[in-house]
């Protein structure tokens, strides 16, 4: 595109994080997601599989892995909640515009 990539604007690679954080990302991505059925709200991860995954992969520092994975989940839930709220507001604005609720008449005379 005619521009040099700016390293400060590039997304971080998992390898730049400490080993415990990398393990947390790995475990987090293996766990299934939970969604609210009626309106599709993201609820986070299903943590019932966490001990099994840690056992299968023989993770040594389970407490730190759990801490970082929960921290990451909090960030993900917050981000997805904000995006859903923005999408909902945009849909409301579209509906209002389509219904003519915001239409005003300029009457002079």
Describe the model.
This protein is mainly α. The chain has one domain. It is 52% helix and 6% strand. The protein has 3 helices and 2 strands, in the order H-E-E-H-H. The protein has a two-stranded antiparallel ribbon. The model has no long low-confidence stretch (mean pLDDT 86).
What can be said about this structure in brief?
The chain is built from three helices and two strands; from the N terminus they run αββαα.
List keywords for this structure.
mainly alpha, two-stranded antiparallel sheet
β-strand percent reads 5-15%
Judged by helices, strands and strand pairing, the structural class is: mainly alpha
Q: Which runs of at least 5 residues are low in confidence (pLDDT < 50)?
A: none
How many helices? The count is: 3
Question: Could you tell me the mean pLDDT?
Answer: 86
Over the alpha carbons, how many angstroms does the gyration radius reach?
22 Å
Which strand order spans the largest sheet, edge to edge or round the barrel? Answer: 1-2
The largest β sheet comes out as:
2 strands, antiparallel
* Oligomeric organization of the protein chains: single chain
Helix content: 40-55%
Write the layout of secondary structure elements.
Blueprint: H1 19-30, E1 33-35, E2 42-45, H2 50-56, H3 62-99
Helix pairs in contact: 1-3
């Amino acid at each position: 595109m005619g521009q040099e990539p700016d390293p400060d604007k590039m997304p971080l690679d998992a390898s730049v994080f400490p080993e415990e954080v990398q393990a947390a990302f790995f475990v987090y991505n293996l766990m299934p997601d939970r969604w609210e059925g009626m309106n599709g709200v993201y609820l986070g991860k299903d943590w019932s599989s966490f001990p099994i995954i840690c056992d299968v992969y023989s993770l040594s520092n389970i407490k730190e892995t759990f801490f970082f994975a929960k921290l990451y989940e909090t960030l993900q839930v917050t981000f997805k909640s904000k995006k859903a709220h923005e999408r909902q507001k945009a849909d409301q604005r579209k509906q209002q515009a389509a219904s003519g609720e915001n239409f005003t008449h300029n009457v002079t005379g």
